[in-house]
Amino acid sequence: KHWISENIWYILAFVLPFVAAITAFICQGMWPFGDRGITIIDSYHQYVPFFSELQYKWRHFDSLFYSWNGGLGMNFWAVIAYYLASPLNLLLLVFPGSLVMECFSLIYFIKIGLAGLSFACFIRKRYNHYGFSITVFGCCYALSSFVIGYAWNIMWLDCIILFPMVMLGIHRLIYEGRGWLYGVSLALCIFTNYYIAIMICIFSCLYLLAELICERSVGVKGKIRRIFGFAGYSLMAGAFGAVMLLPTVYALMSSQSASSSFPTKVKFYHNVFELLCQQFTAVEPTCLDGNFNLYCGAAMMLLVPMYIFNRKTGLREKIVNMLLTVFLLVSLNTNYLAYIWHGFHFPNGLPGRFSFIYIFMLLTMGYEGYSHRKDCPKWTSVVSGLGWLAFLGYSWWSGKAELETYTWVINIVLLLVYSVWLAVLHHLVKPWKVLEIGLLAVMLVEACGYGVFGLCMNGTVNRKDYYSDQKAVRTLKSAADAMAQGDFYRMELE
What we know:
Elements lengths: L1 H5 L1 H20 L8 E2 L4 H19 L5 E2 L6 E2 H9 L15 H28 L4 H11 L2 H6 L6 H20 L3 H13 L1 H21 L5 H33 L19 H6 L22 H10 L5 H19 L1 H7 L13 H17 L8 H19 L6 H23 L5 H26 L2 E2 H22 L10
Helix pairs in contact: 2-5, 2-6, 2-19, 3-4, 4-11, 5-6, 5-8, 6-16, 6-19, 8-9, 8-10, 9-10, 9-11, 10-14, 13-16, 13-17, 14-15, 14-16, 17-18
């Protein structure tokens, strides 16, 4: 009981996203509450079969380097490097082969919960705050539109979990001279999924520069030592991940990705209205094609201005963080920069695969704005709210952004509620605790509600058909084995 009471906000940061995700799929008839499965798009015909093959190899002590059970044979180590290196995949050892899809689902829910826990830990250690607020912001991270829209890419989620720890590690390296957290976290990112790790590595360099500019207590010699320390820990992380990186690079050189070329003309993907409207709630997440996933809580539209205008945060830090955030937004929307961020390659669908970094920046600035809300001018929340209401109204009236009617209405109501609520809290000499808790509760309900909404929009698959196909293939394979009488043969599925 004592341990639970001490860690309750961490526990809730894990449990609430976990429960929200399960609730969304129970509502859609997920097995055993119905006959649906959560493995949509590529997870249906790629990831679950990869899980099955990995489970088979572990249980039969088969080689992890090659598989005859795909095409005419394939480099299985390269498959592991991108899809299967997560430590949580060890859960396959305790699930029967007939429930691999359900094991995939459990890992999916655990990872969403761990994302909330990770960001809550970041807030706790970075700002030395502990309370209900870290749970709320942890849920905003775990149930952001990036995690919800792309969560079926289960192999990316390990890096999403580790990313706040990488950033906390850089902060500790600059301010305390301790870099082990950065080195270990980045090494695990590279090991579990080298692709998302590319984007984290790029941003780590930018974040290091930002922290160095903001830090004033460390002299020039100290900052040079920090840079060398950063380089050393980065090389250590790369060396740890080399067991995955080097074979994968070799494999990729013979794939279609190797022929990608730098764009010749600059291109912008969306107008500013379409882009910024993606930050609001009740916008259907992109799970394959569409706009970028940028949502992490409508309240951030007011809390980020409160961060900019509060008197506690240094001007240099505000300028650096805002420039970095704007650069990320421009990078998402510009083909030159997007090409670089995506590892010098244009992705096939799933646009803006590094938008989780932009979400991270919004949430960190939003949390600081919330923490120092009493140090802002009293007009900040009202003026910010009116500005965003005008933006939404014009976007709706002009047709610059196409959203559902309920989306416009919900966001207008939320902005009004948040603006008035923050203004009331600011004007009270001794704010009522119940009002502060109420504000955070509304933000939490919004985040969890969006998580359920987004996962319902993504949809499900027919589990019965999936397993009946497997049964039919096993029957045919048994017949083929009998005909082959031990000789080598190949087969294809039409």
